[in-house]
Design goal:
The protein has 160 residues and is of the alpha/beta class. The chain is built from five helices and eight strands. It has helices spanning 3-14, 37-44, 76-83, 93-100, 145-152, and strands at 28-29, 51-59, 62-69, 88-90, 117-121, 130-133, 139-143, 155-157. Strands 1, 2, 3, 4, 5, 6, 7 and 8 form an eight-stranded mixed beta sheet that branches.
C-alpha cells in the first residue's frame, strides 16, 4: 500500500471515521487514477456532486483546504471575503505537496503532516454518502458531510 494511503487509512481509523451507512470508512483502491470529479463519479457509479474535491489554495500565503462538491467550482472571491483574506490563489503542485504530502488529484482531507485550515462545502450535506480522495489519484473513501467536518475540524461554508 502506498504510504499516503496508509497515512489516510490510519487517520480514518484513529478518528473512528464512518461512511454513509455507519460502517467504518475504508480507503478503496480504484483500477485507474481519477484526476477529476467526473472521472471519480464514473468509476464509483455515483453523482458528480457526491465527489468531495480537495482543493488547496494559498490564503495570504497560508494553506487552505476547500472540500467542495464536484458539481461546481469554488468562488475564490466569495471565499476570500468570507475568510477576510486579501489574496486567495490556487496553490502550485509544490505548495500542495509541501503542505499535504500528497499529489494534486489525490489530496485527501486528512493524513497530512499537520492539520490544514479547512472549509467544507455545505452542498455536500445534500448527499447521504460522499467520496473523498485517499492520498493518491487511485484511492478514495466514503464518508458523509458531517463526518468530513468532524474529521477535518472544518468549517461548513458556502463556497460556490
Amino acid at each position: 500500500m502506498h504510504p499516503n494511503v496508509t497515512a489516510v487509512q490510519d487517520a480514518l481509523e484513529s478518528a473512528d471515521a464512518r461512511d454513509g451507512s455507519g460502517r467504518p470508512s475504508r480507503v478503496r483502491m480504484l483500477p485507474d487514477a481519477v484526476h477529476t470529479a467526473a472521472a471519480a463519479a464514473q468509476a464509483l457509479g455515483v453523482q458528480v456532486g457526491q465527489i468531495a474535491n480537495s482543493l488547496v489554495f494559498a490564503a495570504d500565503g497560508q494553506p487552505l483546504l476547500v472540500m467542495t462538491s464536484g458539481a461546481h467550482r469554488v468562488d475564490t472571491a466569495k471565499v476570500a471575503a468570507l475568510l477576510g483574506v486579501g489574496a486567495l490563489t490556487r496553490a502550485t503542485p509544490e505548495f500542495v505537496r509541501e503542505h499535504t504530502g500528497q499529489p494534486i488529484g489525490g489530496v485527501a482531507p486528512l493524513g497530512h503532516p499537520k492539520p490544514l485550515r479547512t472549509l467544507v462545502d455545505i452542498d455536500l450535506a445534500g448527499y447521504e454518502e460522499i467520496w473523498a480522495a485517499g492520498g493518491i489519484p487511485h484511492a478514495v473513501f466514503p464518508t458523509t458531510c458531517a463526518e468530513l467536518v468532524r474529521l477535518t475540524a472544518g468549517t461548513p461554508a458556502e463556497v460556490a
